[in-house]
Amino acid sequence: MEGCQAVVFSHDEEYVDRIHAHVTEIELGQAETVDDIVGTGIDIDIAVLDLATLAVEVPAIVEELDASGAGAVLLIAGSETAPETVVDSLEAGAVGYVERDPPNGGPARVASSIEAANRATDRARETPFVDLFREELITRRHADARLAAVIDCVQNPTFLKDADGRYVVCNDEFVSFVERDRDAIIGKRTAEFRPDLAEVCDTTDAQLLATGGTEQLELTIELADENRDIVVERRGYDGDEFSGIVGVIQDVTLQQRRETELREQTRNLEILNQVTRHDIRNDMQVILGMADVLRGYVDEEGQQYLERLTESGKHVVDLTRQARDLTETMLSGDEELTAMSLRPALEAQVDEVGSAYDRAVVTIADTIPEAEVVADEMLSSVFRNIIANGIQHNDSEVPRVTVTTTIDDDFAEVRIADNGPGVPDERKTEIFGRGEKGLESSGTGLGLYLVDSLVEKYGGEVQVTDGTEGAEFVVRLPLATAARTGV
What is the pTM of this model? Predict the structure, then answer.
């Protein structure tokens, strides 16, 4: 029907203009009161009542328009419009209603309802369906309330915009983020309440709506006089009932600062590792060398002090090695593990530690099986620290450490037994620094803490039990063949 005249009775001229932008082949006007039109002789084919802005008895206006010859009366129900008002207006002669705002309404939806009313040949309303109108309106209001409640549960700033870029729903976090009242946000575009954030919140809206794709932006913006690093994740949605953009904003400023701090800590650990490896250990080697020279100049009474000096010096060297190994383990992160040959790694440490302690005896009970285990280059540190521990904490006249290796199912089991005083049951876990205290646990040394950390990284386990004479450490490491076959 060409030349159709429709009038929207509303005090919101901007809203009417937005409706008009979606109307085709219909002449759309605006009036603030019915008196502006009634009695002027203007024929109204479709009268649209914006209930959100009309402070009058709406059913009475519907009857007045109907009596004046208006072809059809359509209602725009605002969020605050009572369902009873809509029902009474429908009973008075209105042909239907549409929600004022998304997600169940909006200017585009109003425009399509006007065009549908224009095309209708039978505008008579069937009164038996009034109850259905009431139920549908209440259901939609409940749906809006549920949507708002769900979004408010999101801890990050979250928003929903319609296809025109106007905010439909946002949570309290978003309100706080943009530093504006909710009333200043809903129904508005970003540029209207925070022009400085328009680029952040509105970038590529059209593209996202067209493709239904997602977008992630990493930006630095100024909020509360402070630069903040944020990540904006947005997704476009184009449906029959609603089209728009849903977005979530994550403030990663603290995360970025923490990452910077971690990089600085890593750099400091690398420096500490270098100092430990070179300076302290080299100086201790000089001290031990001078102590060895002094053996020919110290009398029998002073020999015991020289021995104590030598033992303490060797212990410091061990500590620097342990500290170095622990630092390298911390810096390695998630380095890929590989297949390591067990026999050479274990034999090398038996020889090395045995040579470092003249008064100790370190032996291998049986031939070490040829096997590969899941580990890395730090595997030798596991055996070195356990063997050294069996000597350093041994009160026997001649400390003895015995190494036995077996293959059990998908694991290689290495048992390292000593003839020392053993480990009390209440300390069998504590000596590895396990639990909340870690290295702060009493009696915990760097060596055994490093052992526990490495074995756990390899996917194995280590424990200390009561041996025949003293303590016996049991190390179980997964075989590389089992790891490859997924057994």
Answer: 0.45
